[in-house]
């Protein structure tokens, strides 16, 4: 248990949002995202590193709470039967090693990304795919995400493993979020919502501190669907216009008590204290890598000029 | 894939009833240790002793086991023996701490089990003549040349939780009592003196090992999960026949149920060996071995690792014999050793 003195406002926010249904508190319209501000002096980057003092006066490095949204794969699988601290630590070391070679940027479901993979069967030996991230999951080196696009009227989804060494480059062309954590309903939506040009250019963000939430409401095709979307409380879908019996059955089958079930949410997540420990461990390395990349980019742009 | 499944499920017309009958009488698991073992865990209730007395007890334990510096190879009197291909080396007790995915140099993903080699120490060595007279020794070496036995312990624990008889096993050598003991059959030239530490360096990168463990305990299971029966139809009027076994005999031939008939029962918690697993990575700092494949047992269970007995994957060159010792001149060994077939995470991405 961390000492009482380390209870900062962001930690209270962490504990509060921990009990909410989704990891993301959707009641807030935006999530503050603090990037590493590189100052010319290279002095204290107090924006990102929260150095807090405790009773004995030693500084304790605590990572900002946004880390659990930016790097969710660093948190292990909550199932207690398979947890082992030493193995998780070793896995994190391997993940950081891989991240030192390739930049795995921050992204969320709803972001448009481009992934370049090394492929023996491709003409150029590299295959590039652009798509919207509809789902992400896995923990540790098994972390994955699915990109969806419609290519020549054919819907295509590709699952990429984030730490696979065949991946050459991951670019985020448009960093944004949607109203749902999983966009699997795009499979039953009109194709225009999943179509993105394959030669899309990366878009510049207007505000670097904030990841915008796109409040787009998607129109679904007429039934039959792959899943019963009316039972899933989707926010990002337009009114489904179904006969009343569907909604009645959905109500019968619904489990409204789950949002009050504290033990269920406790078992599905890693405790806040452990999360802090984990991110404090990896934070300095991640920041160093981020810094190096920024400097490389700046040097690259200077060389061009 | 479908072809293999069909072959597996095809009912054999001719069972070897003799073999099934004899094996069905073999007792596969017990909940008690053998009768020659001493009582291990402390049977008395938690005595309510005062904090002063508790502190005193702790001091006594510390005094007894202090002055135990890390043992170097030169301190132990190990006979200089030569390795030959017929040598059987000691094994090692480890904990299966989970499964990690790694990638080979061509991009293929492999599942590797992470095994944490605990603090192993040799407790004693039983020479072949003596071991051949023991209960297990007589059975094992009935028609063979007898071999020696190394008793190795792992995971030191507070002596408070064990009985005096159990702690006395370790007193002669001056070790803290270990939670787990194991016996490894070794040739006399691979014998080790008591108190020898065994670490992850005992093994060589790229070698094949056999891992012994107790499989996952599924408890009392039905016939579908335990034996892979198909059960009955889910609908079409099937009355209470969805996961049952169905017929258990012919009615004509022998007119009874054959011994060994597959029925519901306890599943799991059985001794199994996974043979020929390749070691792909060794971490000397944390004493971790990454083994390609899976091992029997759940996560966080104890397993034993031996050099493989498979004839084609045995050693051709000498391994650290009889075991590995860190270099005397204080140079640290390489911390993380990878097999040549694996892609190291810090190296550039693979271009196929």
Total separate domains of chain A: 1
Overall mean confidence score, pLDDT of chain A? 83
Q: Could you give the count of β-strands of chain B?
A: 13
**Helix count from the secondary structure assignment of chain B:** 7
> What characterizes the major β-sheet of chain B?
6 strands, antiparallel, barrel
Write the CATH fold name of chain A.
SH3 type barrels
Strand percentage of chain B: 25-35%
Characterization of this structure:
The complex is a heterodimer of chains A (305) and B (352). By secondary structure, chain A is α+β, with helices and mostly antiparallel strands. Chain A has a single domain, classed as SH3 type barrels (Roll), CATH 2.30.30. Chain A contains six helices and nine strands, in the order αβββααββββββααα. A five-stranded antiparallel sheet of chain A has the order 7-6-5-4-8, with no helix packed on it. In chain A, a hairpin with a 2-residue loop joins strand 6 and strand 7 (154-161). In chain A, helix 3 (85-101) packs parallel to helix 6 (272-304). The radius of gyration of chain A is 21 Å and the shape is globular. In chain A, 22% of the residues are buried. With 352 residues, chain B is an alpha+beta fold. Chain B has a domain at 88-220 and 265-338: Translation factors (Elongation Factor Tu (Ef-tu), domain 3). In chain B, the strands form three sheets. A six-stranded antiparallel barrel of chain B has the order 1-2-11-10-7-12. In chain B, a hairpin with a 5-residue loop joins strand 1 (92-103) and strand 2 (109-117). The longest helix of chain B is centred in the N-terminal third of the chain and has 15 residues, at 51-65. Chain B is globular. The model of chain B is unreliable at 1-10 (pLDDT under 50).
């Amino acid at each position: 248990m961390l000492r009482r003195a380390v209870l900062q406002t962001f930690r209270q926010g962490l504990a509060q949002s921990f009990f909410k249904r989704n990891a993301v508190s959707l009641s807030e319209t935006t999530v503050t995202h603090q990037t590493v501000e590189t100052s010319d002096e290279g002095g204290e980057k107090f924006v990102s590193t929260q150095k807090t003092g405790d009773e004995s006066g030693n500084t304790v490095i605590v990572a900002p709470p946004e880390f659990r949204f930016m790097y969710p794969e660093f948190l292990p699988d909550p199932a207690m039967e398979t947890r082992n601290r030493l193995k998780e630590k070793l896995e994190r070391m391997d993940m950081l090693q891989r991240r030192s070679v390739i930049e795995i940027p921050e992204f969320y479901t709803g972001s448009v990304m481009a992934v370049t993979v090394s492929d023996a069967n491709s003409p150029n030996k590299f295959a590039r795919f652009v798509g919207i991230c509809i789902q992400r999951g896995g923990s540790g080196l098994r972390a994955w995400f699915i990109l969806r696009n419609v290519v020549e009227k054919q819907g295509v989804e590709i699952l990429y493993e984030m730490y696979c060494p065949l991946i050459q480059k991951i670019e985020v062309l448009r960093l944004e979020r949607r109203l749902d954590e999983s966009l699997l309903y795009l499979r039953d939506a009109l194709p225009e919502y999943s179509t993105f040009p394959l030669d899309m250019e990366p878009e510049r963000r207007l505000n670097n501190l904030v990841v915008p939430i796109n409040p787009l409401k998607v129109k679904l095709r007429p039934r039959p669907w792959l899943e019963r979307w009316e039972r899933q409380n989707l926010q990002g879908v337009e009114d489904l216009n179904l006969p009343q019996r569907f909604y009645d059955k959905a109500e019968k089958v619904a489990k409204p008590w789950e949002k009050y079930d504290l033990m269920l949410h406790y078992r599905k997540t890693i405790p806040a204290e452990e999360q802090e420990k984990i991110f404090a461990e990896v934070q300095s390395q991640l920041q160093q890598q981020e810094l190096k990349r920024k400097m490389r980019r700046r040097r690259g742009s200077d060389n061009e000029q | 894939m479908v072809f293999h499944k069909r072959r597996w499920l095809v009912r054999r017309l001719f069972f070897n009833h003799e073999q099934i009958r004899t094996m069905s009488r073999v007792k596969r698991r017990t909940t008690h240790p053998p009768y020659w073992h001493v009582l291990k865990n402390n049977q008395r209730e938690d005595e309510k002793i005062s904090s002063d007395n508790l502190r005193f007890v702790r001091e006594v334990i510390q005094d007894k086991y202090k002055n135990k510096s890390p043992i170097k190879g030169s301190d132990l009197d190990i006979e200089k023996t030569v390795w030959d291909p017929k040598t059987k080396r000691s094994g090692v007790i480890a904990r299966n701490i989970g499964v990690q995915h790694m990638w080979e140099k061509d991009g293929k993903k492999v599942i590797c089990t992470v095994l944490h080699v605990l603090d192993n120490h040799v407790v004693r060595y039983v020479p072949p003549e003596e071991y051949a007279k023991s209960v297990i020794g007589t059975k094992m070496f009935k028609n063979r040349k007898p071999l020696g036995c190394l008793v190795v312990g792992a995971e030191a624990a507070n002596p408070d939780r064990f009985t005096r008889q159990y702690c006395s096993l370790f007193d002669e050598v001056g070790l803290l009592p270990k939670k787990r003991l194991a016996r490894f059959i070794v040739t006399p030239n691979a014998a080790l003196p008591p108190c020898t530490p065994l670490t992850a360096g005992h093994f060589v990168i790229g070698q094949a090992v056999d891992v012994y463990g107790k499989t996952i305990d599924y408890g009392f299971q039905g016939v579908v999960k335990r034996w892979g029966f198909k059960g009955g139809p889910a609908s079409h009027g099937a009355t209470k026949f969805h996961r049952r076994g169905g017929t258990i005999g012919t009615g004509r031939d022998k007119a009874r149920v054959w011994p060994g008939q597959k029925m519901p029962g306890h599943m799991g918690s059985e001794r199994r060996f996974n043979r020929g697993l390749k070691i792909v990575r060794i971490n000397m700092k944390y004493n971790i071995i990454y083994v390609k494949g899976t091992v029997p047992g759940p996560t966080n269970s104890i397993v034993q690792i031996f050099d493989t007995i498979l004839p084609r994957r045995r050693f051709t060159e000498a391994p650290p014999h009889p075991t590995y010792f860190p270099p005397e001149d204080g140079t640290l060994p390489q911390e993380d050793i990878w097999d040549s077939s694996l892609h190291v995470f810090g190296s550039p991405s693979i271009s196929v």
